[in-house]
Amino acid sequence: MFYSIKGILTHLEPGVAVVECGGVGFKCFTTLVTQRSLPSVGTQVMLYTYLSVREDAMDLFGFATMQELNCFKMLTSVSGVGAKVGLSILSELTPEQVAMAAASGDSRTLTRASGVGTKLAQRIVLELQDKVKKEFGSGAKGLPAVGAGIVSASSHAAEAVSALGVLGYAPSDAASIVAKFDSSLPVEELIRLSLKELGSRL
Questions:
Q1: 169 exposure class (CB count in 10 Å sphere: 0-12, 13-18, 19+)
Q2: CB 115 within 8 A of CB 86
Q3: pTM for the model
Q4: 145 and 132, same structural domain?
Q5: Any residues with CB less than 8 A from the CB of 196 and at least 6 apart, and which?
Q6: Are residues 78 and 122 located together in one domain of the fold?
Q7: What are 139-183's pLDDT values in tens digits?
Q8: Separation in Å, CA 57 to CA 1, 16, 29, 60
Q9: In this structure, are residues 128 and 78 in contact, taking their beta carbons and an 8 Å threshold?
Q10: 79 in a domain, yes or no?
Q11: For residues 36 and 87, what is the distance between their CA atoms, to the nearest angstrom?
């Protein structure tokens, strides 16, 4: 319902940022990562938002980047992962780290977040990997052709494309962006550069 909110930051407390827009103060639940990037109280701020509507509450979540918002939505799509756990994970890990953990099957990294035990971390990795497999198909990691070339399934690029799939990007978009960069770069650097490029298109 709400894409973003822009206004004056009027209040900050752990996990909460209040943005005043049109005379109304919007309470946005957020991550520690987003909070660390916010300006001082009394200055203008813009957050990408997600509105959660339940029978007993309407909660607004705000994030500094679209990548963090997309990652939050992917995490909370996993059974057993609510908003509180999603915020906890993204307070401890960047979207790139979450994507890498899921794409590589590294559930231990996710347990660094408060409230995430071994079983839940394993479920998150399994379900996000399944989402990527459904998107890409089963053959040779299912990586699509890009222009005249193909992202090599044996390169770091293949892992980066899979990780971007975890964050909800379409296979064609992810592959075309990753193909622009040197596939010998570390996987996390390829993800970071690709997210920056994808963010500039918004």
A1: buried
A2: no
A3: 0.75
A4: no
A5: none
A6: yes
A7: 334 444 443 343 444 467 888 887 887 777 877 788 888 888 887
A8: 15, 16, 13, 10
A9: yes
A10: yes
A11: 14
